Each structure stands twice: as structure tokens, then as C-alpha cells.
User: Which sequence fits this backbone?
């Protein structure tokens, strides 16, 4: 219980301090996204957070809004821009999530917040991931792979929620720079993972 209180204080302090420090970079990214991708600069999407409560997650846009002749958005891989891929591979697209951390919807470290459309596809064990706030830095950062399967991701997240501790948070935090380096080496910015619902329906 004490660690949860300490973790929340750390979230507020660290996210606020980082926003202050990177404010020039943040403004520059707003300009670059506007110039390279267009408006709106930010991408917002409903996500499922702690105790399966929904919230609005905010990121820098990495895709265009190009549509087909019927007015439907083109597949993600067709709308991903080169600049957007750079933002993703460097994780700079996630900087606006600092506002979600300050607000209390997210934590610095925690399971990846995912869309509500996935809510029906978790196993009983995987639902443990919702016992903590979703995070900017995921527990699977300690994995040696830059690209990870859904099953492995949820295994890390469920174990993280069951074993919440300062030691685990520190270990994950120290790995954040390694995973960014790994993402760049493997062209993570161009990687589009199959949606969880489609992946699990295909396996049935």
C-alpha cells in the first residue's frame, strides 16, 4: 500500500518535471507533426485503464487520415508516414502521455494501455494487468526482443501487477534506453502488430 502511494507521488513529480524540461522539444514536435503529417497534431483514443475504467490516451500523430473511395480509413500500414515511423521508433510519439500520468489515468511504469475492443479477449490471468495503472514504460521492457508477442506481453504485465515493488520498477526503468535502442535497430517504427482480437479469433 505504501509503495502504491509513493509510486503515485513519483508519477506526478517526474512527469511534471520532465514536461518542464522538454517543453522546447515538445513545441518543436508539434510544429514538425503539423508540417509533416497535418492537423490535428495529437491522436486521442479511448483506452482501458486500472480496474477496467476507460480514459482518453493522447499521443503525437504518426499516421495520415487517408481514406479509400468509400470514405473508410486505409489500413495502418498504408497511412504510416516516414516521419511517423521515426516518432514511433524513438518513442517520441508517446511524450503527450505525460499529461495522462499527471491526471492519474496512467503511471510512468505499468502495462500498456490498450483499446476497449480488446477487453473481451483477455484470459482470467491476463486480467490481473488491470490491478495497476497502465504505463508509459511497459514491464516487457526487460525482454531482450524489440518486438514481442501478445501472450508474452500479457505474461509480463500480469506478473508485474502481482509483484508490484520498487525493485521491479527500478529494473524496468533502467531498461528503457535499451529498448529504445533495440526498436531503432529493428525498424520498430515501421512495425504494425496484428490486432489482438484478430490474432485470438484466428487461433480459435
Assistant:
Amino acid at each position: 500500500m505504501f509503495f502504491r502511494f509513493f509510486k503515485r507521488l513519483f508519477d506526478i513529480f517526474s512527469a511534471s518535471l520532465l514536461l518542464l524540461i522538454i517543453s522546447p522539444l515538445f513545441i518543436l514536435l508539434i510544429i514538425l507533426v503539423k508540417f509533416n503529417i497535418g492537423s490535428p497534431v495529437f491522436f486521442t483514443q479511448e483506452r482501458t485503464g486500472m480496474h477496467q475504467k476507460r480514459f482518453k490516451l493522447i499521443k503525437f500523430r504518426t499516421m495520415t487520415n487517408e481514406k479509400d473511395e468509400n470514405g473508410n480509413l486505409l489500413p495502418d500500414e498504408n497511412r504510416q508516414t516516414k516521419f511517423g515511423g521515426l516518432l514511433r521508433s524513438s518513442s517520441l510519439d508517446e511524450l503527450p502521455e505525460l499529461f495522462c500520468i499527471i491526471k492519474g489515468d496512467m503511471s510512468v511504469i505499468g502495462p500498456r494501455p490498450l483499446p476497449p475492443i480488446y477487453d473481451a479477449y483477455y484470459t482470467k490471468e491476463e486480467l490481473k494487468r488491470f490491478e495497476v495503472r497502465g504505463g508509459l514504460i511497459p514491464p516487457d521492457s526487460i525482454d531482450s526482443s524489440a518486438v514481442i508477442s501478445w501472450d508474452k506481453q500479457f505474461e509480463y504485465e500480469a506478473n508485474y501487477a502481482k509483484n508490484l515493488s520498487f525493485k521491479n520498477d527500478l529494473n524496468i526503468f533502467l531498461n528503457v534506453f535499451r529498448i529504445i535502442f533495440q526498436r531503432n535497430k529493428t525498424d520498430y517504427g515501421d512495425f504494425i502488430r496484428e490486432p489482438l482480437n484478430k490474432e485470438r479469433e484466428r487461433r480459435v
